[in-house]
Write a structure and sequence with these properties.
Pfam families: OMP_b-brl
Largest sheet: 8 strands, antiparallel, barrel
Domain Outer membrane protein beta-barrel: 14-205
Signal peptide: 1-23
Radius of gyration: 19 Å
Structural class: mainly beta
Keywords: Signal
Number of strands: 8
Distance between the termini: 29 Å
Helix content: 10-25%
InterPro entries: Beta-barrel_OMP, OMP/PagP_B-barrel
Number of helices: 3
Strand order of the largest sheet: 1-2-3-4-5-6-7-8
Shape: elongated
Order of helices and strands: HHEEEHEEEEE
Amino acid sequence: MKNTILALALATAGLAAAPAAFAQDAAQGNAQQGWYVGANAGYAQVQKGPYDNGNFAGGVKGGYRFALNPDTSLGAEVGYVYLGRADARGQYTQNYANYNGDNGKSKLQGATAGLNLRYSFSPNWYGEVRGGAFFAKGSGLTNDKTNPEMVNFNSTRYYAGLGAGYNINKNISVGLNWDYYDGSQSDKNIHLPTNLYSVSAEYRF
């Protein structure tokens, strides 16, 4: 997985040579272009099998965004997200051997690599869609009510999300976001699909 992340990071860096060509075709407008870093924090919720609750979550990311036209930008980014821990519930806890109220908790985190498409409605307001690969690493109870087991897993899945925000100035913006992370590994019967509701901040160089 480390090699995959490195390759994607290098590919993102390689886009630095392309933006100038796009910029020549994009008239001056509200579209953003350049390197950026960001962070977000909020509440992650799991609703599947043994889990129906959530916890604090957050992440960091960085990438390069270039203008496609006066109001639209495309960015390539990599990041890392921590999606918290959820408590097991119901029959899963009753049938999980040696359950003590804590050892059935799930955990999910992982690296991301993807694209974001940002549309600037005005110099201040923007909307965004994004998605890509989620290199999930987690643990939790299997989706088996009669005989749940605690398993660890690593899988390559996907994430997707929406956001809207406000540009405080040309370098700094804040936003509200919803993202979905498909954290699962079917052959181990572990499923932790997670919705993340967060606030974010971004700095553009």
